[in-house]
Structure formats: structure tokens, C-alpha cells
Design a protein that fits this description.
188 residues; binds flavin mononucleotide; 19% strand; seven-stranded mixed sheet; alpha/beta; single chain; 43% helix
């Protein structure tokens, strides 16, 4: 791993002013302040054809797949749609099947900050749980703290409580990547 960890953000919606996108963006901002390099895949970049394992799909998802392949960590955010993560975000995550045969499959061994929004607490919490289960299936390490947020009354990313939550996720990701770096230097 390079000295500055490379963190890939994925998520949000194609809705103008997506609250989920704002939270993922803010988390990447906190990571950059902590020394990380980041890239964000959101909005129309998430509009990929329903995934199948074909060369055509591999080409359609190439940018996201290549970024995840070399990522040291990820931040994934989804709105809650009908009790789980959105089909849009799930479809993008299905593209990570292209990494199945890598020496480091899927998001193996990497920390993943998980964020879910909804118009109610039940939808937000259920979607966060679903997202973390998907990250486990992809062999990633959901950060101990995940953010489930009811944005029914609007979202202020400068709210101290939200800033604290975002900083906590960013800090846990940076702790994990620096521990990984130390371990790699030991060669174990
Ligand atoms: C198709 C659809 C299904 C939704 N289902 C739920 C739901 O089950 N529970 C809930 O609390 N909010 C639900 N919502 C509201 C969204 O989760 C909420 O508006 C979300 O924060 C939007 O994210 P965005 O601002 O990033 O677009 C739904 C919205 C849509 C469009």
C-alpha cells in the first residue's frame, strides 16, 4: 500500500441533491484531510446495465472495477428503498463479481465505511444492516461504526452530530489502513 491510502467512494442516487451522495462526499473529504487520496463514483456514473458476467458488462463497469481493484478502503452509501439498499447501488456492487478471481477477491481484507439514508429510521437501519451483510459477502470489513440516518427533515452535513459520525468512520478507516501498512512492512 502506498503511504497515502486510496479510498473509493461508491453510492448515492441519481437524484439531484442526493443526501446519500452528500454523506459519502463528506466522508471522503474527512479521509482526504486525514491524508487519503479518494475518488467518488456517484450519480449517473452508477447507471450501469443490470450485471451479468460478460465482456460487455466488464467494459461498462471498467472504471469502477479498476478503482476497487486497487483500493485500500471503500466508502459505500445507499438510500433505503423498500427496506433495503437501492437496486442501483446493489447493481454496481454486483459488478465486483469481476474481481472474483483476483489474488485479492472482491474487497477482500479492506475496510468499508457503510452509510444508509432513508425517510425513516426503520428503513435507514435495515438498509445499513443489508449493506454491511453485502460487504461481508464481498470479504470486506465493515467499519465498527456505520451511519444510518433518517433524512426526512432534511440533511445538514455540517451538523456537529453528523460531522462526528463521519469523522468516526473516516478515523476507523485510516486506523485500519495504517495497521495494514505496518503489517505489510513486516511481510506477514
Ligand atoms: C423507490 C423508493 C423506495 C423507498 N423506500 C423507503 C423505505 O422503505 N423506507 C424509508 O424510510 N424511506 C424510503 N424511501 C426514501 C429514501 O430512502 C430517502 O428519500 C433517501 O434518503 C433518498 O436518498 P437520496 O437523497 O440519496 O436520493 C424510498 C424512496 C424511493 C424512491
Amino acid at each position: 500500500m502506498a503511504d497515502a491510502p486510496f479510498v473509493v467512494g461508491i453510492g448515492g442516487s441519481t437524484r439531484r441533491g442526493s443526501s446519500t451522495e452528500a454523506l459519502v462526499t463528506a466522508t471522503l473529504g474527512a479521509l482526504e484531510r486525514g491524508g487519503a487520496r479518494t475518488v467518488l463514483h456517484t450519480g449517473d456514473a452508477l447507471l450501469l446495465p443490470p450485471y451479468e458476467r460478460t465482456p460487455r458488462h466488464a467494459e461498462a463497469g471498467r472504471t469502477i472495477i479498476e478503482d476497487v481493484r486497487r483500493a485500500d478502503a471503500l466508502v459505500i452509501g445507499s438510500p433505503g428503498y423498500h427496506g433495503s439498499i437501492s437496486g442501483l447501488v446493489k447493481n454496481v456492487l454486483d459488478y465486483l463479481e469481476e474481481l472474483a478471481d483476483d489474488p485479492r477477491p472482491y474487497v477482500d481484507g479492506r475496510p468499508v465505511g457503510c452509510i444508509a439514508t432513508a425517510q425513516g429510521w426503520q428503513g435507514a437501519v435495515n438498509s445499513l444492516v443489508a449493506l454491511r451483510q453485502i460487504v461481508h459477502a464481498l470479504r470486506g470489513w465493515p467499519t465498527p461504526f456505520g451511519l444510518a440516518l433518517n433524512v426526512e427533515g432534511g440533511l445538514d452535513v455540517a451538523d456537529p452530530g453528523i460531522v462526528g459520525s463521519i469523522d468516526l468512520i473516516a478515523g476507523q478507516i485510516l486506523d485500519f489502513t495504517s495497521a495494514r501498512s505496518a503489517r505489510a512492512r513486516l511481510g506477514v
